[in-house]
Write a structure and sequence with these properties.
single chain, alpha+beta, Nucleotidyltransferase, domain 5
């Protein structure tokens, strides 16, 4: 039965906290625990979690804000579950931060946190809604309002988050698939297929592959064992409702193909980055970035960066499989950022750039400034002018409405019948006397009769040209504002060992990062209050 925690609304007159010496009590209230209690714990919207509990008469739930608060403290400190539980039982600062002023008050078993996480996961699987994400938005929005943080200027960056899985080769995963398939068989089927499974179940997958040397030998074993897996999947179809069978079938389909009734292993180029990386984490994906391979997820962080702000807060966090590009993450984040903040200018790196993003940002009235650009540089050799030297005004759909040449001559703009390009017409009397045109440094063309000077501009070229023009104008501002987001990424991931979370699966990884971000914002508020 759900019951809201109202104890913190009326502090106890007599408690372990009130019995502290005055000097010790002052030190407690000046510590991070007071900030956590006021800025995080008391802001947690408990009623959001009412849907996780039975409405009928039963034993009341452990206070939700205590359970959520413990999750945040756990990710901040990098505690294990046992360490988190010990701190709740015996650490006065932790108990005070969670509104428990008396030792022995609100005691519960560690298993309660496991049940709570399971309810969160099952609810998210059923509805697609992560309640911890709602907590993060509610708490952060109230903090932004209280401290009057200007959200018009923000910066964004992504980071790789490694899943808590072993780095197995394709052959090791193949042997692991056979071993797990064998374990779900009935005793009768295990006896029937014992000889088939025996070469692969006597030792671990790592031990099996250890004695195989050379690429040719490994490739030969992959196809050999793949044939065994194919035959077993065909014979054991009565187990196809089992998750282990389905995972083994997925692995086979992603890594093998049938060629004239023979099983052939797919080459590395034929396997997508979304293929199975582990039997313990079915959502982790593979990505190579900066010549380094990652297996897991990508986190995308957005924070305020106005220099006049009293403090900067993280306004949005996303976690997706790591093959999701920065472009997709930016597009997904825009709607929420616009709804919750007053975003007008966004600082990013070159990975967040594309014509589609440009048009979406223009429609949203948001200016994007970057620290770098992708693509080839314009040719300015011998003083030549490029399309980016023409100043153009674009409407929210990316159409050119006004254009001016490098010397300031305005053009008459006509859209092509296909609506995919624009024709900029210039006065030939002005062009024929222009030093740039006469010197062959201007891209403007002239017709044979010399009655018309024009420049044909494809729509995407117009967008990219103005993006480069904006970059040249704002690059110094962007390079001054963006570097600090790297420190934010470190703060969010500081408790992770080598960037690897201690959980598996997209939902649990998202919860870990959300709690870590809430802790980062809390620490920033605490430091700000200590200096004011």
């Amino acid at each position: 039965m759900y019951k809201q925690n109202k104890r913190n609304q009326q502090p106890l007159l007599l408690s372990d906290v009130s019995d502290l010496p005055q000097r010790t009590l002052k030190h407690l209230k000046d510590s991070w625990a007071e900030t956590f209690r006021e800025e995080v714990f008391l802001r947690i919207p408990e009623d959001l979690f009412q849907v996780l509990y039975d409405c009928g008469p039963s034993r009341p739930n452990v206070p939700v804000n205590i359970l959520v608060g413990l999750e945040i403290l756990k990710e901040w400190r990098g505690w294990s579950d046992e360490e988190m539980y010990d701190h709740f039982l015996f650490d006065l600062q932790v108990r005070y931060a969670l509104g428990c002023d008396r030792f022995g008050e609100g005691d519960f078993d560690l298993r309660t946190t496991y049940y709570f996480r399971r309810r969160l996961s099952e609810y998210a699987l059923k509805t697609g809604r992560n309640l911890l994400a709602d907590v993060y938005q509610t708490v952060t929005d109230e903090q932004i309002k209280k401290y009057k943080v200007n959200t018009r200027l923000q910066r964004m960056d992504s980071t790789q988050i490694l899943s808590n899985i072993a780095d197995l080769s394709r052959l090791e995963l193949l042997v692991e698939a056979l071993q797990r398939l064998y374990r779900i068989l009935s005793p009768a089927d295990q006896a029937q297929y014992r000889e088939v499974f025996q070469p692969y179940t006597q030792e671990t997958a790592g031990q099996y592959t250890y004695r195989i040397h050379g690429k040719e030998a490994v490739w030969q074993h992959i196809e050999q064992v793949g044939q065994v897996l194919a035959d077993l999947l065909e014979k054991l179809k009565n187990y196809q409702a089992q998750p282990v069978y389905q995972t083994a079938q997925r692995f086979f389909e992603e890594n093998f193909k049938q060629v004239e009734s023979q099983v052939k292993a797919r080459s590395n180029a034929e396997i997508s980055s979304g293929c199975l990386q582990s039997f313990d984490d079915l959502e982790a994906t593979y990505r190579v970035k900066c010549h380094r391979a990652y297996k897991g997820y990508v986190g995308n962080i957005t924070e305020t960066c106005d220099p006049d702000n009293p403090l900067q807060l993280i306004t949005d966090v996303q976690v997706e499989p790591n093959r999701v590009s920065d472009l997709v993450l930016l597009k997904q984040a825009l709607a929420g950022l616009q709804e919750r903040t007053d975003l007008e200018k966004l600082v990013t790196d070159g990975g967040y750039i594309s014509p589609g993003v440009d048009i979406q940002l223009m429609k949203s009235g948001i200016e994007q400034i970057t620290t770098g650009l992708t693509g080839t540089l314009p040719n300015h050799q011998d003083g030549k002018k490029a399309l980016s030297d023409f100043e153009m005004e674009l409407d929210p759909d990316g159409n050119v409405t006004h254009a001016t040449c490098p010397v300031g001559q305005a053009a008459v703009v006509h859209m092509s019948s296909s609506q995919k390009s624009f024709k900029l017409e210039f006065d030939p009397n002005v062009c024929l006397t222009c030093p740039l045109f006469l010197g062959g440094q201007c891209p403007i063309q002239i017709n044979k009769k010399k009655t018309l000077c024009f420049l044909t501009v494809p729509k995407e070229r117009a967008i990219s040209a103005q993006r480069r023009r904006r970059f040249e104008r704002c690059k110094e501002e962007a390079r001054a504002l963006r570097p600090a987001v790297e420190a934010t990424i470190f703060q969010v991931k500081h408790a992770l060992q080598h960037g690897k979370v201690r959980v598996r699966g997209l939902f649990r990884t998202t919860c870990v990062i959300l709690c870590s971000v809430l802790a980062v914002n809390m620490r920033r508020i605490y430091r700000y209050e200590c200096t004011t």
